[in-house]
Design goal:
The protein has 2 domains: about 40 residues; about 120 residues, no CATH class. Helix content is about 80%, strand content about 0%.
């Protein structure tokens, strides 16, 4: 078999493994979905959070920025990392303490204000759409290289995979 066929086999087996894990560990209710039924140890939860930070947007975007701008681009990397650490240290513990699953719910209840909740929702949507644009571009780039398809096709494949796993 050539490299392309091995790539398809490897990617297919990887997806089959993840689908099998997803089917075996399906969530039964909302709390199990959001916080894994509180059965995940703190170290594993922290590792999962760090893995989320080390994503296509982080690696490809920051590497491209530093490559394009030079040494001055590392300032953005420090801000990106520092902001993530501050968010994890200053906000995440209070979400659990308040028993909330989302930042807008926490802010709305913390400040007794639906206006604050609405502003938090708008900010979360804006940040999410900005972040997902980088993620999808990274997914498209990775799939275009592995599967030897155009980047647009790679993005569409990635979107269908994300949709499949989310459903």
């Amino acid at each position: 078999m050539d490299v392309q066929q091995w790539t398809f086999v490897f990617v297919g087996l990887t997806f089959a493994l993840y689908i099998g894990i997803a089917i075996m560990t399906r969530a039964g209710n909302t709390s199990e979905f959001y916080v894994a039924g509180k059965g995940v140890p703190p170290l594993a939860n922290g590792l999962a959070t760090a893995a989320d930070w080390m994503s296509a947007a982080s690696f490809l975007g920051m590497a491209g920025l530093i490559s394009f701008v030079g040494y001055d681009g590392s300032v953005y990397l420090m801000g990106w990392t520092g902001g993530y650490v501050l968010l994890a240290l200053l906000l995440a513990p209070y979400l659990r303490k308040f028993g909330k699953f989302t930042v807008p719910d926490f802010i709305g209840d913390r400040y007794y204000s639906n206006i604050a909740r609405t502003v938090a929702v708008i900010c979360a949507l804006l940040v999410s759409f900005t972040y997902i644009a980088g993620q999808m571009r990274g997914v498209g780039l990775v799939f275009s290289r592995f599967l030897e398809v155009p980047i647009t096709t790679g993005v569409i494949i990635g979107m269908f995979i994300v949709l499949f796993y989310a459903v």
